[in-house]
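@channel anyone free to eyeball this complex?
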Amino acid sequence: MQDFDPIEEHFRKTFSGRESDPPENSWLKISSRLQASDRKGGGISKTIERGSGFIHSSRFYPVLAVAAMLVLILFIWISYSDKHTIRGHAYAGEGRLCKGTAYLYKVIDKAEPVDSGLGKPVQTVRVDMKGFYQFTGISQGNYVIKVAPDSGSEAIRNFLPSFYDQNSEEKKANLVRIGKEDPTIDIHLQPK
Amino acid sequence: MTLPAEVFEQCLKNNPRGQEVLYRTYAPKMFGVCLRYAGNRMEADDIMQEGFLKVFRNLAQLHSPQALDSWIHRIMVNTAINYYTRQLKFQNEVSLNYESKDATIAAEALSKLSYKEMLQILQGLPAGYRTVFNLFVIDGYTHKEISELLGISENTSKTQLLRAKASMRKILLRIL
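replying in thread with the prediction:
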């Protein structure tokens, strides 16, 4: 048998069936939310509205901020995960080219040799003292690489600016196909 | 408290006038329920609005319009429980001696308290205590029903009730 508890008894008596006037604007808020869900219509709106209390509350904003950050990280990750690097050495005869410039051209048509003209390079990098060059952040596709010795250098007297793998003529340039891997492309300058 | 059959029909057809009549009929009683489950008046209003939205969206599921009163009441209670789900922390510690009732709080002393004061005491309790106290003492749920509703054990429900009453007794001794 349960003991008589004056606290329980008093609270039960006071609160059972107790009415209290709701705020004046409560009905307006409810009816506007009902109308909004009617306008959206159908099952989708029901699904949305089920969570609308949460969406309308301030507790939603931190969740929104985290979600936006995750989307941003995902976007950056996707953007960079699909990028590649082309690196290699440029050779002038038996030795490596000391100082020059490497040009990377995007090739839209798949024909080989290139027959539509190269236009402007998408990247230009320096060839260092050891003949090393590197293009980064390259998306998948077909490219042509050209290396030119610096004017005034010793190499310019004996070698022509050349395309991969050893052609001075644009139309004879070999395509470099960038797929899933980062290739190493060595270029040999064509002797004059 | 009954709703005219034609109003009920209007509500089933999402008629705004019918919906307003239903709201005006039940809102005072339901706001009373929400006030004692909520931590304050603003939260009570949030709970009541959510509750009525559920009522209007799910009215077609109600097979007997005569059961409307208890159905809306149940929706409000469930909405209140969901509202505080994250805050509901139940500790099943039975070692504390909450069983002993303090004889100094007599019924006459309690009768001096106003409704507003009692509501303040109730709303001042932690959400877990308040919910179990409301369910057991005022709404007449058994500990078994409470355990199923809140996903806790019956013992935890009993402990929460004891803790709630101990907290209230402490406050009452201070103010009476």
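from a first look: Chain B has two domains: 5-83, 107-175.
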